[in-house]
Write a structure and sequence with these properties.
This protein is α+β, with helices and mostly antiparallel strands and 259 residues long. It has six helices and eleven strands. Strand 6 and strand 7 form a beta hairpin.
Length: 259
């Protein structure tokens, strides 16, 4: 099954507005620990996550239940590693997401080097003896073709790279959901994920995996993705909280991550 596919992900347009950060220069910038704690406090969905900031590297590891009574337990896991120097925190987007909450969106800084090297590395890692069973054929195999492919991809505004092992919960004719089964290409994809997670200090990388059951067992992998985010999103409880978090993010990155 050729289920790992290439996607060009265009930047979505949301109702919201730009927020030009006017950081209070009389306040000292937060420490890495203080900023990580504030990020967690604002977003209940990552309350149990491991959130850390090491100089300019933000890391988030989270696990969330994803099943229901009909299909049984499932577990969604996500690991994010981004270099905060690569994103613009001076001007961010504030996007309402319901219940008074706001999303803070920082976009890739166009002045920073692109993500083509990381995309090429991921595509080269996707090669192997099992490639034909899980890699989409439109992704080239040799390094020179990969380079041309990536250059064309990143020449398109708002595009990025996402490699996905796709599988869906199916509802039968009787209206009942079918029990999920491990993906037939789980082993090959897990091997690819292991390589991706070993990349030292990636500019921007997200690995998301869904397992059957309540533990991340490789042989119970249902679906997954390896994705290069070109935007970093944070959730805040209100508009005023979002503005405060935006200012704290800018203060920290301006003090610690300016080139």
């Amino acid at each position: 099954m050729k289920s790992l596919i290439f996607l060009m992900v265009a930047a979505a347009l949301f109702a919201g507005g730009l927020f030009y950060v006017a950081s209070d220069k009389t306040l000292p910038p937060p420490t890495a620990e203080e900023l990580a704690a504030l990020i967690k406090m604002e977003d209940p969905s990552i309350e149990g996550a491991a959130v850390s900031i090491d100089k300019c590297r933000l890391s988030i590891k989270n696990e969330l239940p994803a099943g229901d009574d009909e299909i049984g337990g499932m577990l969604y896991t996500v690991q994010v590693s981004v270099d905060l120097r690569k994103f613009n925190f001076e001007t961010v987007n504030l996007v309402p997401v319901g219940d008074g909450r706001m999303l803070i969106r920082s976009k890739w800084n166009d002045k920073q080097p692109g993500l083509m090297d990381l995309a090429e590395e991921l595509l080269e890692m996707s090669q192997g003896p099992d490639r034909d069973s899980w890699a989409n054929q439109q992704v080239p195999a040799d390094p020179e073709s990969i380079r041309r492919f990536v250059q064309g991809l990143f020449s398109l505004p708002g595009s990025t790279l996402s490699l996905n092992l796709r599988q869906y919960i199916v509802t039968g004719a009787d209206g009942k959901k079918q029990k999920p089964e491990p993906h037939e290409d789980a082993d090959a994809f897990q091997a690819f994920v292991a390589k991706a997670l070993e990349i030292p200090h990636p500019s921007s990388l997200q690995v998301s995996l869904t397992y059957i059951g309540d533990t991340p067992q490789p042989d119970r992998l249902f679906s997954g993705s390896v994705f290069i985010p070109t935007m970093v999103d944070f959730i805040s409880r209100s508009k005023s909280s979002a503005e405060n978090l935006g200012e704290r993010l800018y203060a920290y990155t301006h003090a610690n991550c300016s080139r």
